[in-house]
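User: My instructor asked us to take a sequence, write out its structure as tokens, and then describe one feature of it. I'm not sure where to start. Here is the sequence I was given:
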Amino acid sequence: MNKENSDSANSPDILPLLAIETSEKLCGVSFLFNETEYFSAKIFLPHSHSEKLFELIETLRDNANLKLNDLKAVVVSSGPGSFTGLRIGMAAAKGIAAGLKIPIIPVPTFEALAFQLSQILPENQKFIIANKANRDEAYFAKFHVKNYHYIFEEELKILSITDIKIHNDELIFGNISKNPNKIVSPEPEIVGQWALKFGLKNIVNDFDFLEPNYIKDFIVKEVKKND
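Assistant: Let's start with the prediction itself. The structure tokens for your sequence are:
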């Protein structure tokens, strides 16, 4: 997929918007008034999303002097990532959007992160994003930078961590053990910026059945107890 072309020039009226990022340990929210003017708040605290997400939204609302009724859309990082984090983010987005009668824009998490990285990496740099799906597997995608945007070299998939090969001309980002670059999820304002630039075709008004992109089924393993 080539993300050189922006569709923000034909933006519908979705500003200001609320962007939510909960796909990994980062719990972040952002109010965007346009692509360059925004307020953001975030914390890095595992297992805190359900407790802290609405607290962050309320704090941000007060700091931005913005009423929730002013929002025109909710943007949410849709995965892949943590099952729990994605569910919390999507549930919050649905609740807010339903209450305000505004649409949701789901944003593919790896593409938002690739967009963020493409703003700081050199032209033609190849890079991999690989985040753990479980102990042995990772969500994996490969990109390269062109004109401050990203282009897929390998589409998103699940790979065994041992099968991930890094060439000398590639950088890797994510939370797998061999990776020194620990950027694992996009900033919340980047999630909002991605939606403005590339996500207008993703607008969902009937979101009852909208779900995160888990990619891998969530399997609960039964733990046998000794008698």
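For the description part of your assignment, you could build on this observation: Residues 83-100 form the longest helix (18 residues). Try explaining in your own words what that tells you about the chain.
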